[in-house]
Specification:
Layout: H1 2-6, E1 8-9, E2 15-17, E3 24-26, H2 28-37, E4 43-45, E5 54-57, E6 62-65, E7 79-84, E8 90-95
Parallel strand pairs: 1-3, 4-6
Antiparallel strand pairs: 2-3, 5-6, 7-8
């Protein structure tokens, strides 16, 4: 399960050691062979930050979709969702983070019902 979750596409061919410290990297040759062996045309994956919310790689054999805008409140990235229609045609919905509201003042006074 760890390898499935943490492995990332890479520009280099074959398998490699992931800089994340878990999983592996895989090249276009690996994604093409996987798709061919399994009768697939696309690997849709997540769990990797991409700035525009989604990112194609390996000649559109792999797409990464990341749905957490402004990850960790500091990355400034968009988020995206993939939408499939009845014929399995896909489109992407991108969205920006919501503006951050100021936190309301929190009183430190003990409520009466605790006295």
């Amino acid at each position: 399960m760890c390898d499935l979750l943490w492995s990332d596409p890479d520009d280099r061919g074959g398998w490699g050691i992931s800089p994340r410290g878990a999983g592996y990297t895989f090249g276009q040759d690996i994604s093409e062979a996987f798709n061919h062996s399994n009768g697939l045309t696309l690997i849709s994956r997540a769990h990797q930050l991409v700035m525009e919310g989604y990112n194609w790689c390996h000649d559109r054999n792999v797409v990464t979709v990341f749905s957490a805008p402004n990850y960790c409140y500091r990355c400034g990235n968009q988020a995206a969702m993939v939408e499939l229609d009845d014929e399995l045609k896909y489109s992407f919905l991108q969205f920006d983070p919501a503006p951050r509201r100021g936190e309301p003042h929190v009183t430190r006074r003990t409520p009466d019902y605790f006295l």
